[in-house]
C-alpha cells in the first residue's frame, strides 16, 4: 500500500474538504432549485398595486404542474390583475414573481376582432405553433425546398397537426356550436357567441397553463358540463376565476382567496375553502347576530320543505344543500349584500297558465314553431328549474309567459293580481345611462322617501355616492344588481328568471339564493349555475323536441343524460355515414331521388337561415358601431345629451332585435338538424 508523507496527508485532507464543500454547495443549490423547477409559477412576498390602491401584498405561494387553482375574492380585489401579472402585462411592485422557463400560457381574449374568416379557422389560430409551421410549409412548397418540406411535415406530425381541424370542431361542438356554424364568419356572431369562440381558441392552444376568467358567463348548462369534463382531462395547470361554485367544486383542487390585501391559499375545492374560512370567521363575534339571523331564515325554510322532501330525488338533494348552507353560513357574514322580497299576503292560485299553446315566431315566410301543444302552470310556492340545450325553447317559453312574444295559438291565462318580475340579460341595456340607481327607483316610485330608497339600495351594495352616480360606467355586475334591485322592489308574485347570475359574484349569488328561498310566490328559473338550481328549485322541467315535461331526476342525472344524448347523436351520425357509404339503404338511383326530395323539402328552411344570417350580420355591425360611440366619454357630456339618448335607445332596440334573431336562428337550425337526421 502506498503511504503518504505528512505533506501528502495535509494535501489530501484539504482536497477532501474542498470536495465536501463543492458537493454541499451543489446539493444545496439543487435542493433550493427544486421548488422553483417543479413549480410553474412562483410568488415570493409579491405585492401588486393599481395606482395608489394596494391590491395584495406579501403574497407567497406556488402553482405546480396539474394544479387546478380557483382564484376567488370580491370584485376589485385584484383577481384579473393577478392574471395580468402572470401574462407579463403587469410587473410586481415588490417581492418576486417568476415562471418556469419555456412554459406555454393560454388565456381567453376579452375582445374578438370583427373579421370575416370562418369560425373554425379562428379557433385553429389558438395553436400558434401549428399556424407558424403551416406558413413555413407554404413558403417551402412555393420555393421547392424539398428537404425543408420533409422536416416541416415531420414537425406537423409530431404536434398531431393532421387532426387539428377535427379537434377544433369538437371544441366548438362542446361549446354549443352546430356544424353549420363552423364555416360562418366570425363577425356574424353576437358578443356572447364571440366569447365562446375566444374560449374555444384558448382551449385549442397546446398549453402548460390555462388562465380562465369567468369562462362560464356566456355558456348554457350543457356547455358548462362539457367544459368541466374537458378541464378535468386537461393535463396542464389551470388558474380559474369563477363565480359558479359548483363549477369550482368539480374542477379545482386549491383556492387562492384574495381579501384584506392578501392572498391566502386553501387546499381542496370551493366547499372545503368555505368551511375552513367559516371556522375562522365564526370567531368574529361582532358579526354573530347577523349570522344567526341568516341561519334562522335557512332553517325555517328547510323545516317547511322537509315535509315534502320524500316526493323526489331532486327534493332530497335540495334539503341536503340547504342543511350544508347552514354549516357554511359564517363564511358569508361579511357579505355586503342583505335583502329580501317583501311579504305578499294573499297570493292567487293559479298565478299563470298556458293552455294547448304553440309558441315561436312569425316571419315573412310564415311561422317558426318552437313549442307545440304546451300545457304549463305556475302556482304559489312553485320552484321550477328549466333544463334543455341551447335553442330548445327555454327562452321562448319564458317570453311567451311574459308576453314578450305573441302566442302562435292557444291561451295564456293570468290571475287578476299577477305581478311578474322578469329578468333577462337584454334588460341590462334598458337601464337609462344618465340616471343613477336612486333615480331609477324614484321614477317608478315617486312617493317613496329618499332615505327609504337609500336603505334599500344599500342591501345591494349601492352605498353613499354610488347610489347617486349615473349607471353608464357601471360594470356588468353592477348593472345586473341594479336590475335585480328594481325587480325586488316591485313586489312581484311571479319570478321569471333567464340566467340571472351572469356577471354576479359569489356573495351576491349567495344573497339571491337566501332571498329566493323565502319568496312566497312562484319561480321559473333558467340558469347554468347548478348550485342555485339545486338550492332554489324543487322541480326540474326539460324543454326538448318541442315539448315541456317534468324531468325525473336531479342535476347529476341530467348531466349523465346530456352526455348520453351526445353519444347517441354521434352514433346516429356514424350510422348514417356507414349507410351512405355501403349503399345498403337504397339503390343509388333511389337514393339520389330521395336526396333530391329531401333537399327540396329542406330548402325553404335553409333559405330562412341564410336570410337570418344576413340580418344578424347587419345588426351586429350596427351594434359594434354603437358600442364604439357609447365608449366615447364625450357622448355623456351635457351638450350631447340628445345624441346620447338617441344612441342608447337605438342600442337597446337593436340588441333586443339581435337577441330575437339569434333565438330564431338557433331554433330553426335545431329544426333543420332534426329533419336532416
Key traits:
single chain, 677 residues, alpha/beta, 6-stranded mixed beta sheet, 21 helices
Please outline the helices and strands.
Blueprint: H1 6-38, E1 41-50, E2 53-63, E3 68-72, H2 79-86, E4 94-99, E5 105-107, H3 119-124, H4 128-142, H5 146-158, H6 164-174, H7 191-204, E6 209-213, H8 221-233, E7 237-241, H9 245-251, E8 254-259, E9 262-267, H10 270-281, H11 288-306, H12 313-328, E10 352-363, E11 366-378, E12 383-387, H13 394-401, E13 409-414, E14 420-423, H14 437-444, H15 450-458, H16 476-489, E15 494-498, H17 506-517, E16 522-526, H18 530-536, E17 539-544, E18 547-550, H19 555-582, H20 588-630, H21 641-676
Parallel strand pairs: 3-7, 3-8, 5-6, 6-7, 12-16, 12-17, 14-15, 15-16
Antiparallel strand pairs: 1-2, 1-4, 8-9, 10-11, 10-13, 17-18
Helix pairs in contact: 4-5, 6-7, 11-12, 12-18, 14-15, 20-21
Report on this model:
The chain is an alpha/beta fold and 677 residues long. The protein contains 21 helices and 18 strands. The protein has helices at residues 6-38, 79-86, 119-124, 128-142, 146-158, 164-174, 191-204, 221-233, 245-251, 270-281, 288-306, 313-328, 394-401, 437-444, 450-458, 476-489, 506-517, 530-536, 555-582, 588-630, 641-676, and strands at residues 41-50, 53-63, 68-72, 94-99, 105-107, 209-213, 237-241, 254-259, 262-267, 352-363, 366-378, 383-387, 409-414, 420-423, 494-498, 522-526, 539-544, 547-550. The strands form 4 sheets. A 6-stranded mixed β-sheet has the order 5-6-7-3-8-9, sandwiched between helices. Strands 14-15-16-12-17-18 form a 6-stranded mixed β-sheet. α11 (288-306) packs antiparallel against α12 (313-328).
Amino acid at each position: 500500500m502506498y503511504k503518504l508523507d505528512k505533506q501528502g496527508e495535509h494535501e489530501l485532507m484539504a482536497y477532501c474538504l474542498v470536495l465536501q464543500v463543492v458537493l454541499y454547495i451543489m446539493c444545496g443549490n439543487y435542493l433550493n432549485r427544486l421548488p422553483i423547477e417543479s413549480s410553474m409559477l412562483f410568488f415570493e412576498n409579491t405585492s401588486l398595486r393599481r395606482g395608489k390602491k394596494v391590491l395584495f401584498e406579501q403574497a407567497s405561494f406556488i402553482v405546480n404542474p396539474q394544479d387546478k387553482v380557483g382564484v376567488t375574492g370580491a370584485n376589485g380585489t385584484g383577481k384579473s390583475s393577478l392574471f395580468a401579472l402572470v401574462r407579463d402585462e403587469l410587473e410586481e411592485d415588490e417581492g418576486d414573481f417568476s415562471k418556469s422557463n419555456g412554459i406555454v400560457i393560454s388565456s381567453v381574449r376579452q375582445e374578438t376582432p370583427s373579421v370575416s374568416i370562418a369560425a373554425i379557422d379562428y379557433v385553429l389560430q389558438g395553436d400558434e405553433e401549428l399556424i407558424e409551421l403551416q406558413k413555413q410549409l407554404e413558403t417551402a412548397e412555393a420555393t421547392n425546398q424539398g428537404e425543408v418540406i420533409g422536416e416541416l411535415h415531420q414537425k406537423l406530425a409530431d404536434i398531431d397537426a393532421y387532426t387539428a381541424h377535427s379537434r377544433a370542431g369538437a371544441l366548438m361542438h362542446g361549446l354549443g356550436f352546430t356544424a353549420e356554424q363552423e364555416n360562418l364568419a366570425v363577425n356574424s356572431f353576437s358578443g356572447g357567441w364571440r366569447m365562446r369562440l375566444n374560449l374555444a381558441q384558448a382551449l385549442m392552444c397546446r398549453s402548460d397553463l390555462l388562465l380562465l376568467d369567468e369562462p362560464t358567463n356566456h355558456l348554457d348548462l350543457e356547455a358548462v358540463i362539457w367544459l368541466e369534463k374537458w378541464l378535468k382531462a386537461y393535463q396542464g395547470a389551470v388558474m380559474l376565476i369563477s363565480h359558479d361554485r359548483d363549477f369550482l367544486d368539480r374542477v379545482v383542487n386549491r383556492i387562492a382567496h384574495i381579501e384584506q390585501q392578501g392572498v391566502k391559499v386553501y387546499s381542496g375545492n370551493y366547499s372545503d375553502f368555505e368551511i375552513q374560512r367559516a371556522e375562522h370567521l365564526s370567531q368574529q363575534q361582532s358579526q354573530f347576530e347577523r349570522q344567526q339571523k341568516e341561519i334562522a331564515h335557512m332553517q325555517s325554510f328547510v323545516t317547511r320543505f322537509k315535509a315534502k322532501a320524500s316526493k323526489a330525488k331532486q327534493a332530497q338533494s335540495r334539503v341536503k344543500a340547504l342543511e350544508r348552507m347552514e354549516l357554511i353560513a359564517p363564511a358569508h357574514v361579511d357579505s355586503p349584500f342583505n335583502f329580501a322580497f317583501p311579504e305578499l299576503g294573499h297570493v292567487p292560485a293559479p298565478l299563470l297558465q298556458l293552455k294547448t299553446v304553440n309558441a315561436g315566431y312569425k316571419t315573412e315566410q310564415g311561422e317558426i314553431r318552437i313549442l307545440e301543444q304546451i300545457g304549463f302552470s305556475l302556482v304559489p310556492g312553485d320552484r321550477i328549474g328549466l333544463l334543455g340545450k341551447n335553442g330548445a325553447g327555454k327562452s321562448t317559453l319564458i317570453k311567451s309567459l311574459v308576453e314578450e312574444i305573441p302566442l302562435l295559438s292557444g291561451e295564456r291565462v293570468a290571475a287578476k293580481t299577477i305581478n311578474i318580475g322578469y329578468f333577462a340579460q337584454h334588460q341590462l341595456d334598458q337601464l337609462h345611462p344618465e340616471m343613477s340607481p336612486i333615480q331609477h327607483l324614484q321614477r317608478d316610485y315617486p312617493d317613496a322617501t329618499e332615505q327609504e330608497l337609500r336603505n334599500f339600495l344599500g342591501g345591494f351594495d349601492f352605498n353613499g355616492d354610488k347610489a347617486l352616480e349615473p349607471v353608464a360606467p357601471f360594470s356588468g355586475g353592477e348593472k345586473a344588481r341594479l336590475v335585480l334591485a328594481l325587480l325586488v322592489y316591485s313586489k312581484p308574485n311571479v319570478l321569471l328568471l333567464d340566467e340571472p347570475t351572469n356577471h354576479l359574484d359569489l356573495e351576491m349569488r349567495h344573497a339571491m339564493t337566501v332571498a329566493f328561498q323565502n319568496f312566497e310566490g312562484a319561480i321559473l328559473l333558467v340558469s347554468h349555475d347548478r348550485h342555485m338550481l339545486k338550492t332554489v328549485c324543487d322541480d326540474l322541467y326539460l324543454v326538448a323536441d318541442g315539448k315541456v315535461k317534468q324531468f325525473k331526476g336531479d342535476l347529476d342525472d341530467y348531466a349523465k343524460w346530456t352526455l348520453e344524448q351526445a353519444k347517441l347523436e354521434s352514433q346516429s351520425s356514424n350510422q348514417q355515414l356507414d349507410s351512405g357509404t355501403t349503399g345498403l339503404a337504397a339503390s343509388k338511383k333511389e337514393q339520389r331521388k330521395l336526396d333530391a326530395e329531401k333537399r327540396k323539402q329542406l330548402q325553404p328552411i335553409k333559405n330562412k337561415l341564410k336570410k337570418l344570417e344576413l340580418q344578424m350580420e347587419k345588426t351586429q355591425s350596427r351594434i359594434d358601431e354603437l358600442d364604439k360611440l357609447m365608449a366615447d366619454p364625450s357622448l355623456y357630456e351635457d351638450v350631447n345629451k340628445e345624441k346620447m339618448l338617441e344612441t342608447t335607445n337605438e342600442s337597446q332596440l337593436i340588441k333586443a332585435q339581435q337577441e330575437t334573431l339569434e333565438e330564431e336562428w338557433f331554433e330553426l337550425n335545431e329544426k333543420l338538424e332534426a329533419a336532416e337526421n
